[in-house]
Amino acid sequence: MPEVITFKPLYMERVWGGRKLETHYGRHLPDEGKPFGESWEVVDREGEQSVVEGGEFAGKSLHELWSSHREQIFGWGLPSSERFPLLLKILDAGERLSVQVHPPADVARHLGGEPKTEMWYVAHADPGAEIFAGLCAGVTREAFERGSREGIAASQVHRIAVSPGDFIFIPSGRLHAIGGGLVIFEVQENSDTTYRVYDWGRDGLDGVPRELHVSESMQCIDFTDYEPGPGVAKGDLLVNCPQFRVERWKLTAGEGRVAGRNGRFALLAVVDGLLRCGERNFAAGDFFLVPVGCEVNLVTDEGAILLHVTLPPTQEAPSFSPDC
User: What is the pTM for the complete model shown?
Assistant: First the structure.
């Protein structure tokens, strides 16, 4: 059984991005001075692939692991999907993202896109940072459609002031945007379908205004979704939905915790602090996969905050004996 698995991140240039992946996490970004808005940490898509760094599976893609080593690495009771069902990212929003929506499954089929439910965990927030989620109270479908035509749609979206440690669930159909000055850890369905309603009147990286998708958005938006608040943790648990389960593990100085004990794989993301896992050290911004049956001790000398991500079981998983 393999030890923990790490992947090479993929960096995505975005017009709204910044350089905090470099300044906060010590990353070596590809092009000096350009805005990088996303680091895709765990991804299995046709055009983008996580590739294993080191160890038994060095050089293999996440798709190869999911296709050829599914039970060995990920366990039982999992979706029969062709591709790994989750996509994990770090977002550096130097400026506001577009006001947008992701399609629910039934609408996605009709529009030829992919459904997308996600959650955001705030790792860094400049003073006054905010996110946009849901509609302001009383905004009807007709009022929003009129606001989209008149270029005032952003004023009809609910704003939430946020600080590090806040999180919010973004189900498909929820209108949303990320404000500037935020670094966010994102857990989402494996999808890249986004419909933009409003983009603040700016040009894209090519100097041309980015395409809007008002007609598609109007078919996706949940017009009963008024003024949602940030998430409320239930102990460790942040989100438990059909697409993923996310816990926040807060380790105090000198504290340890075991990952992999429940007979399921887990993806761990270090939000803050330093962590030892066997002979390996992980710092803020690091992600790693704990294979099924591979119990590992996580230890911190100064304290750490982790996100523990996995898939809900589709059936009861058998017991595994740790042998890694």
Answer: 0.94
